[in-house]
Amino acid sequence: MEIFRPFGFDKPLFVTTLILISLGLIMVFSSSGVLSSEKFGQPFHFFVNQIIGVFIGLTMIIAMVSIRRPFYQHPTVIYTLLCLTLFLLALSLTMPALGKTNRWIHFFGLRFQPSELAKICLVLFFAFYFDRMKNKLDEFRILVPPLAVLLLFILLIIKEPDYSTALLIFLIAAIILFIAGVRLSHLLLLGISSLGFFALYLFQASYRQDRILAFLDPAKDPQGSGFQIIQSKLAVGSGGLFGVNIGQSTQKLFFLPSAHTDYIYAIVGEELGLIGSVVILLLFLVFLWRGLLISWKAPDLFTQIVAAGLTLSIFLQAILNMSIALGLAPSTGLPLPLISYGRSSLICTLFSIGILLHISQRRETSRGKRK
Question: What are the CA-CA distances from residue 118 to residues 9, 67, 180 (Å)?
Fold first, then answer.
């Protein structure tokens, strides 16, 4: 049995989300204004699209915290979402390529990236499956169905190609397996086999190897594969302690590619300095703390896994993106959640947060000690 507290959602998590969204809007406008003027003849194109994403996402959050019934826990919803995402991932491979990739669905002038939805539906599916099988997790055969689904998702995403998202989804799945209580020997076997799998695909594409080499020694090819890393470090380094001020970045003037998407944290470092960069890092740490606290207080195993999985999915992506901007990890193409430009990422992230806030309103009527 559980009780539902209407609008008793986690306020610190919600406020943290609003602050990150606000900072994201400021930085998207600052980092994309020049590019938008060059491509569309006015500086507000990316900013307006980001506002639309914020409006849709916040509307979803309001709707989520207003309803009592946890629809996301219903098997029909979970399996429908799973099948829909698989269909969209397959459909994206038939769409016209954009930037030599097939990551987006195009319809009526709009674009949507199904891999963003895949992160959510896999967390929901894994949570549902392991909640039903929690007394049989010692048997390896029980792991076969979810791992088969995971492999199908990863293969479709790698085919786009989007190696970094496929790897991130695998890491999230591995964490969920651990949280669910899967035996360590089974996790070790999965880790060893997956290492060979991802290594195979890593060395199949020369540009992936170039990214690794550029990360290890960007000065070896400063005008080629190392260019983006060097420009990103220059942006961060030139910001100093307090930054050059909002709107005053020089690296966004066509020096740093993807300044409003993958490398927006470098522009944060340049315009807001070390203080601004640390503030965003601290906000994501607060997000992690509140999300894991929601997971700890969740009323059942399903909601515990969902809350932890969604929280870690957003946090790990944020840490990886920031590490890339600082030159601490190879370039991947993953956006910074709630900050980078991109409606698919923003809407799906806010949908995930809506689920987290809804879970935070649910409580067991009486709680014993956790086993």
Answer: 25, 24, 20
pTM of the model: 0.93
SS3 189: helix
Give the model confidence (pLDDT) of 68-97 as tens digits.
Answer: 889 999 999 999 999 999 999 999 999 988
Residue 368 within any structural domain of the chain: no
Whether the Cβ atoms of residue 353 and residue 16 lie closer than 8 Å to each other: no
Question: In this predicted model, what pLDDT tens digit does every residue of 15-64 receive, in sequence order?
Answer: 999 999 999 999 999 999 999 999 999 999 999 999 999 999 999 999 99
- For residue 17, is it within any domain? no
Q: What is the helix (H) or strand (E) element at residue 349, kind and residue range? A: helix 343-360
55 in a structural domain:
no
What φ, ψ does residue 273 adopt, rounded to 5°? 70, -170
Task: Indicate whether 109 pLDDT > 70.
Answer: yes
Q: Name which of 51, 33, 53, 50 is nearest 42 in CA terms.
A: 33
- Closest Cα partner for 121 from 80, 88, 166, 90? 80
Length of the chain counted residue by residue: 371
Give whole-number Cα distances, 212 to 19, 113, 206, 330, in Å.
Answer: 34, 25, 10, 6
Contacts of 149 (CB under 8 A, 6+ apart): 82, 122, 125
Q: In this structure, is residue 168 part of a structural domain?
A: yes
Q: How far apart are CA 244 and CA 151, in angstroms?
A: 46
Residue 371: per-residue pLDDT:
40
- Residue numbers of the domain that contains 101: 69-340
Q: Which 3-state string (H, E, C) describes 47-62? A: HHHHHHHHHHHHHHHH
User: What is the Cα–Cα distance from 270 to 272, expressed in whole angstroms?
Assistant: 6
For 320-351, the pLDDT digits (tens) are 999 999 989 888 888 999 999 999 999 999 99
CB atoms within 10 A of CB 157: 24
Domain total in the chain? 1
Q: Report the chain's C-alpha Rg in angstroms.
A: 21
Going by pLDDT thresholds of 50, 70 and 90, the confidence category of residue 301 is: very high
